[in-house]
Amino acid sequence: MLLEIDNVTLLYGRIQALHGISLTVNEGEIVALIGANGAGKTTTMRAISGLRPIASGRIRFAGEDITKLRADLRTVRGISQAPEGRGIFPGMSVLENLEMGAYTRRDSAGIRADLDRVYGLFPRLKERAKQVGGTLSGGEQQMLTIGRALMSRPKLLLLDEPSMGLAPMLIQQIFSIITEINQQGTTILLVEQNAQQALSRAHRAYVLETGRIVKSGTGTDLLHDPAVKDAYLGVA
After folding, report:
1. Fewer C-beta within 10 Å: the chain N or C terminus?
2. Mind listing the pLDDT tens digit for each residue in 86-137?
3. Which sign, positive or negative, has the C-alpha torsion 87, 92, 95, 99?
4. How far is CA 186 from the centre of its chain?
5. pTM to 2 decimal places
6. Torsion sign, CA atoms 156, 196, 140, 114
7. Contact between residue 159 and residue 191 where contact means Cβ atoms under 8 Å apart
8. How far apart are CA 233 and CA 197, in angstroms?
9. Diameter of the chain by CA atoms?
10. Domains of the chain and CATH, by start
11. Are residues 18 and 8 in contact, defined by beta-carbon separation less than 8 angstroms?
């Protein structure tokens, strides 16, 4: 087991955002976390990456208890996040943004190899290597966000709403690349409002409602679950 979240609660002031959630991610999987706006999906990601301290519970990664570990040290351990809303460095070039993703590393040959890998996944980024990030299209910025996260060579890639704001054709392209990243050996935890795409790609999935996990199963099982269809897939 690569990641284990055990009975985690998280507070925003007096508001309880997560109510004792537990989930696991095994090495080599794509695991999806789906739910409506405000369900706690992004909060869960921030708890895993260390950007929000948890109130109780435990987080284990690769056999180590990381519950109290600083966010930067979690990156060193192998957790990398492509945040919601992209969050690129708009005044820096595409190449500089990608290099920032490797800031914890000192293996220059490995960094060059990973840069080639990112350019192989996202040829558009190679074409625009010298272009300032803020001038890229929304789809290109999403590619850059994922590429930057890959530059730390993560064991676990956290993807937060990668399809947000993208045209349908680009959504299909992004999810195809996510599958390819996984097939290349990177484990993925995916938070996504596009439940159809997420469940189609995921090995397993969890449904989050108001800070509680209410369902779990294989991606295929949840894709065909009548309650999930009704709530998240727009069909009865």
Report:
1. C
2. 789 999 999 999 999 999 889 999 999 999 999 999 999 999 999 999 999 9
3. negative
4. 11
5. 0.95
6. positive
7. yes
8. 10
9. 53
10. 3-78+154-233 (3.40.50.300), 92-147 (no CATH)
11. yes
